[in-house]
From TrEMBL:
Species whose genome carries this gene: Thermocrinis ruber
Upper lineage: Bacteria, Pseudomonadati, Aquificota, Aquificia, Aquificales
Protein name per the record: Uncharacterized protein
Length: 106
């Protein structure tokens, strides 16, 4: 599955409107919760705003740093969101801190 990086949190917030109806799975640090569409949108909105706050409060994080990745931006069914521990020099990427996907995509 191919994911596209969304460097702008404002753009990521716009993508929430395109999320399809259905049951969503929200994963945070390996803990899974099943949510309806509105609950999933609210969780992701909180996370995107948190990341926006990181960038605004830490001058060492370039504004173009990408923490948010989405599969098919035109109809988002799967989001992966990384945290500050993913920054740095590494040949591999840490697992995402948050993940949210349509249950049927599992």
């Amino acid at each position: 599955m191919r994911f596209y990086g969304i460097p702008s949190e404002d753009r990521a917030l716009e993508l929430l409107a395109g999320m399809p109806e259905g049951r969503w799975v929200f994963v945070e640090n390996s803990t899974q919760t099943e949510l309806d569409l509105e609950q999933a949108r609210e969780k992701l909105r909180e996370i995107f705003l948190l990341i926006k706050g990181w960038k605004e409060s830490n001058k060492h994080i370039p504004q173009t740093t990408t923490f948010i990745f989405v599969h098919t931006p035109d109809q988002p069914k799967h989001f992966k969101v990384y945290d500050l521990s993913s920054l740095g020099c590494s040949v591999s990427l840490n697992p995402p801190r948050w993940e949210c996907y349509l249950l049927e995509n599992k």
